Amino acid sequence: MQVQINGEPEELPGEELTIADLLTHRKVESPAMVMVQLNGEFVAREQYGTTRVADSDRVEFLYFMGGGAGR
């Protein structure tokens, strides 16, 4: 299956994966710190295990980053 992840084409195994499968496949260490867009729509975290990614889909991983004021 061919999808676009963060703007880059990627070949994935199988014909269909869930968002949770994709996070595991990509070895995302802190999935709780990632928001996912599928074809331009945000996916609720509780739906990661049931939302399917299909051929030609566009997926964006948006990572939360913390920081502080520098001195």
Structural features:
71 residues; Ubiquitin-like (UB roll); 5-stranded mixed β-sheet; 10% helix; mainly beta; 1 helix
Question: In words, what does this structure look like?
Answer:
The chain is mainly beta and 71 residues long. It has a single domain (2-63), classed as Roll (Ubiquitin-like (UB roll)), CATH 3.10.20. The chain is built from one helix and seven strands, in the order E-E-E-H-E-E-E-E. The protein has a five-stranded mixed sheet, with no helix packed on it. Strands 3-6 form a two-stranded antiparallel ribbon. The longest helix has 7 residues, at 19-25. The protein is globular, with a radius of gyration of 13 Å. The termini are far apart. The mean pLDDT is 89.
List the helices and strands and how they pair.
Layout: E1 2-5, E2 8-11, E3 17-18, H1 19-25, E4 34-38, E5 41-43, E6 52-53, E7 58-63
Parallel strand pairs: 1-7
Antiparallel strand pairs: 1-2, 3-6, 4-5, 4-7
Physical arrangement of strands within the biggest beta sheet: 2-1-7-4-5
Strand percentage lies at 35-45%
Number of strands: 7
Total separate domains: 1
Rg, rounded, reads 13 Å
CATH superfamily membership, which one? Beta-grasp domain
Average per-residue pLDDT, rounded, comes to 89
Helix/strand/pairing category:
mainly beta
